[in-house]
Amino acid sequence: MSASVLPMAADTGINGVALAVLIVLFAIVTVAGFMASRFKRGDGLESLDEWGLGGRKFGTWITWFLLGGDLYTAYTFVAVPAAMFATGAVAGFFAVPYTIVLYPIIFIFMARLWSVSHRHGYVTPADFVRGRYDARSLSLAVAVTGFVATMPYIALQLVGIQAVLEVAGLGGGDNIIAKDLPLFIAFALLAAFTYSSGLRAPAVIAFVKDILIYLVIIVAVIYLPGQVGGWDNIFGAAQDKMEANNAAAIEAGGKPTSSFIPGVGAGWAYATLALGSALALFMYPHSITASLSSNSRNTIRRNAAILPAYSFVLGLLALLGWVAIAAGTTPIGLDGKANAQLVIPQLFEDMFPAWFAGVAWAAIAIGALVPAAIMSIAAANTFSRNIYKEWLNKDATPAQEAKVSKLMSLVVKAFALVFVLTLDKQNAINFQLLGGIWILQTFPSIVFSLFTRWFHRWGLLAGWAVGITYGTVEAYQVINPATGKHFGGSLALIPGIEQMGYIAMTAFVLNLVVTIVVTAVLNAAKVSNGRDETIPFDYFADADDPRVIKDLSEHRAHTAPYGDPDDIPGNAGAR
Amino acid sequence: MTLGNEPPARPRPEDGPPPTNRAMMIAAGVLLVIPIIALMAVPTYARTEPELFGFPFFFWYQFLWVFLCSAMTYGAYRLTLAARKNKGGKR
Fold this sequence. Notes:
The structure holds 2 protein chains of 2 kinds. By secondary structure, chain A is an all-alpha fold. Chain A is about 70% helix and about 0% strand. Chain A has a single domain, classed as Sodium/glucose cotransporter. Chain A has helices at about 15-35, 50, 60-70, 75-85, 90, 95-120, 125-135, 135-170, 175-195, 200-225, 230-250, 265-280, 285-290, 295-305, 310-325, 345-350, 355-390, 400-420, 425-440, 445-450, 455-475, 505-525, 550-555, and strands spanning about 490-495, 500. Chain B is mainly alpha-helical. Chain B has one domain. Helices cover about 50% and strands about 0% of the residues of chain B. Chain B contains 2 helices and no strands. Chain B has helices at about 20-40, 55-85. At the A-B interface, helix 6, helix 11, helix 12, helix 14 and helix 15 of A face helix 1 and helix 2 of B.
């Protein structure tokens, strides 16, 4: 087997050629990011619609690249194959059914959210909840959940860049400045072009990122299997490793944690991880921001049919984790410890010429910029709309909102940087797991409310609170078998079924039960469910629909927190 | 599962949803639910045989669903357009 002659230990020296390619490609996208402010330019960037949503005019293909770049993050590209490499299919390959069932789910509700947001100038899901129920508390709950869940997600993009830099041999210095300087520079550039170009920057960079990712993965999947003895050998090696892992775990007195394919009983874990993640993904502010930036309600539906192309690539990438097993890749960090997160960058360094390894690293590093930019924009929009304007400065003008958002995007990224540099990486991963559990609890408030107002605002709030509390407590009780620490994973026993399942889904079911019971009681007691500022037509409006003029006077009369929708650019303009 | 073609919760007939062909919307809904059910039924595909090009069944079957789901979602898209085609052009 040819792999056996390859260097086995991680090369801790600096790979000059690969690093040069990485830097050049990174420089190109940085320039593109700054120039992006001219892309499909509107009336300046002085409103949230322009800065934060790109003027709401991205067509099908731009949206495809943008959402693809947004959802399939650098961390995904690092962590999914790493999970496959370390513990196998239940932990890793569930990403494939997750990103398949995702699209029918968003097809069902996203067009409605687009339409109502377009008619009322909503920028965040919390805006919609505010308008639907006139409930500041529920809106705040949705906003804070989205904001808090997004922060560790941004930090994880840094972990993705770090993995590449570490394999490239950077960041090995003893003093803290030399160690983290490359990451610092990368993030400073990201912050600068996001500040100046807003959502247009990731939209442009996403083209480069996605093309690089497709190129790298297709080349790897065609070339690598032949080098390591074919797919038979790859799956054989993976099966052997997972069985050996489990045998060792049982011998040590623990439970088997690895899987070649989900065994009896693991089906629940696999299915709930996939479904729970799929339901949660489009509750994150960054997914909704990218969706709302599209130019018509059907753009997102067309995209639901073409975005699975990325899921196919993600599946291939997951299998590269097993290719690495067959190739005998040993991912060892600069601290000399084994680190599965490094497996993909290491595989490329071992198996490809230096220049191509550089392209692959660039694909991952640039892949971190797109979601990190969109996430910081979305978190910043959430802050300026639903916290700043709603609670701190009710009379903020669109220009002030945009200004607060731009500043907040810097704060959010600085926070993520501090998070990664000062705390253990594992903390970022734990919080991201927790974030997934939390964000799913906003699903009823956002999605159910798009279809009905039967659910009571306080019922939704109660369900949210119970779901978050239960999910947090359960996740805390998961002990990592290797380190003995809390928040060790996202699986726990499902009460009543007695199989392992995704904690977020159990919490979600509990959330639903509480929501329904409280709603039934409050509706029976005829407690007011707030005032709805939307009308049924709003949920079907398209970009070229005429506006219903008489509604506007109503908006003015309403003690409108968002002011006159006529003043909000992009709000169903008279075309 | 609702697809947004119910009568409006608050009666504002002049601003109600556009006329919709209900049968087509139900068909679209069925197309969307099929992949979800198929992939949630993990025990139906958590096995290694039959293999295809060296890929255990578990893996190639899920790759196959990427394409099936994409086709079904596109079908649902065409159906929802047709169900409301009386409303303006397609943008």
